[in-house]
């Protein structure tokens, strides 16, 4: 009886391992680096425009000026775009550290580094997704205008979230 149960669950383990070793999923740490860099560039562009008192051209979504000059575009004197610069910079650094930990020697120190960095990155990713959802809600329901650069940042965070949680992980090393 036990042999039948083991055989029934065996293909699932094989599928799980096959999926875990899929080439696309193995490249997801690189995707995280690229996405965080793109988010950094987007936020930096908006920050530079803010401090130059310029509104970037808005060709896809007609509402950049409305969104970027609204009361929700800053937290006190700090523009949200500047917070985004630091957020994406942190994700970029953590993504690179995670990648280095994964590419390092298969010793416990490298795996522990990847695990610690991964946990902190998970916290940032979930927090960023929540903030993005709030900012999207503000654009849609309160401001009634959309900024294409803001939407790009929100899409980047969503893709980062999906990519991060699709990444295969090894079991923790004690």
Helices and strands, with pairings:
Elements: H1 2-20, H2 23-26, H3 28-51, H4 64-68, E1 74-75, E2 78-79, H5 80-103, H6 108-143, H7 148-166
Antiparallel strand pairs: 1-2
Provide an overview of this structure.
With 174 residues, the chain is an all-alpha fold. It has one domain (28-166): VKOR domain (de novo design (two linked rop proteins), Up-down Bundle). Helix content is 75%, strand content 2%. The chain contains 7 helices and 2 strands; from the N terminus they run H-H-H-H-E-E-H-H-H. The chain has a two-stranded antiparallel ribbon with strand order 1-2. Helix 3 (28-51) packs antiparallel against helix 7 (148-166). It is elongated and about 50 Å long.
Biggest sheet, open or closed, and with what strands and sense?
2 strands, antiparallel
CATH class: Mainly Alpha
Number of strands: 2
The termini sit apart by 35 Å
Work out the helix count: 7
Low-confidence stretches: 9-15
Based on the structure given, which CATH architecture is correct? Answer: Up-down Bundle
Number of domains: 1
Which class of secondary structure composition applies to the elements? mainly alpha
Output the helix-strand order.
HHHHEEHHH
- Residues in β-strands, percent: under 5%
Summed over residues and divided by their number, the pLDDT gives a mean of: 84
Radius of gyration using CA atoms only:
20 Å
Looking at CATH, which topology would you report?
Answer: de novo design (two linked rop proteins)
Q: Give the name of the CATH superfamily.
A: VKOR domain
Shape: elongated
Strand order of the largest sheet: 1-2
Helix content: over 70%
